[in-house]
Amino acid sequence: MADDAIGNAELENTMQKHAVFLYDATVQGGAIGAVTLTDINGNAATLPAHAVITKVTYDKLQAPASVGSATIALGVTGNTDAFKAATAFDNAAYTASATHMHNEIPLKVGAAAVSVLGTIATAALIAGKFRLIIEYTDSVLA
Amino acid sequence: MDEWTDKNGDVYRLDADAPEGVVRYLLVKKAKAPAKAKAPAKKSKSKSKKE
Asked: What is the ipTM of this complex?
């Protein structure tokens, strides 16, 4: 088996799993709205139903920029600020190289898989790129 | 999912004009702000003085 070939699918339900989501303003744009983050290859990705999210780490790749007073909230479908409440794009939470996001963490995903969202409000972003590294465990009970 | 409701009651709908490959939702209905709690009635300034 090649290096790094073991993914979440190969780990048993009790083991900690990781998923990495990407926002890139040059790809997804910075318009006001809730944009779905992708996996690191730009493909659609979700967090599985009933997963228990235990840790969310923001990894800045390029600081967000805006010509207005843009705010960014981070969360999931149906809970747009689960990870981070709406916060100014130039706040230290987004300009630091890496920070933990723990607004409502730990958090259990509901009965359906959810997308990870970055919700931009007040003004558009003109730049910005970051990863969200999410640690979770599959729930064995609904 | 084309439309969903956030926990606070905001309604988001799929943005049909988003660039190809981008899934974006627009806020189409803002939840009503909760009614402010009624301020307690002010106490009367008149005080009975003890003599």
From this structure: 0.86
